[in-house]
Design brief:
10 helices, globular, Growth Hormone, Chain: A, 79% helix, mainly alpha
């Protein structure tokens, strides 16, 4: 059809959506602490005197709170209509979760940090999907979603590699969490500075 808008090429997409590319980059940095905590949970649990059973409980808490959070997200979005704002609020939850994990003196406090998954990862993922739909034109939305997922995957790979290297260092778990916190704060600040999305008027 003559009036149909065709998707752009990757380079043209990046050129036309520079701010979106910056947001995606900031998200990949923000995700760093989440990746290291999720991957190296057994080391974190053992660092506060826990066992593999305690790790299973912590992971179960994170999984349980994710389902209702994702189910409730559409209702929350209908009230706010600003996916960028919701991503930023989730970013705050990521940072608080990392701080609680870093300072946790016992397994109980690690479990408390995992309950924050409700506001962090579980809210962030649907918010990122809605965000793409808000800021990217219809013909390129699939490309935007794919890019968002790809960058999160790269962040996961780097987080796993660097987290393992930090665990092997003298600093151990505390060093890994401190670095993760610093990196994620940097990503959050970048997100605040780069994103300029506003409330969508329906």
């Amino acid at each position: 059809m003559g009036g149909e808008v065709k998707p752009t090429g990757l380079l043209e997409f990046a050129k036309n959506n520079k701010r979106f590319i910056g947001v995606v980059g900031s998200i990949s940095i923000l995700f760093f602490s989440h990746v290291t905590i999720s991957t190296f949970m057994i080391q974190i649990i053992e660092n506060v005197g826990g066992s593999s059973a305690d790790m299973g409980m912590a992971n179960s808490i994170a999984a349980i709170v994710e389902l209702p959070a994702m189910a409730l997200f559409p209702l929350l979005y209908k009230r706010i209509h600003n996916a960028g704002l919701l991503m930023k609020l989730s970013g705050v939850a990521f940072i608080i979760k990392t701080v609680v994990t870093l300072l946790a003196p016992s397994v109980f406090w690690v479990n408390v940090s995992m309950s924050l998954q409700f506001f962090a990862y579980a809210m962030f993922i649907p918010a990122s999907v809605y965000y793409v739909n808000e800021v990217i034109s219809g013909a390129d939305q699939n490309k935007g979603q794919a890019l968002m997922g790809m960058v999160m995957g790269i962040s996961g790979l780097l987080g796993n590699i660097l987290g393992g290297l930090m665990l092997d260092s003298r600093g151990g778990v505390s060093f890994m969490l401190m670095v993760g916190l610093g990196v994620s704060v940097m990503g959050f600040v970048m997100l605040l500075l780069i994103d300029r999305s506003k409330k969508v008027i329906r």
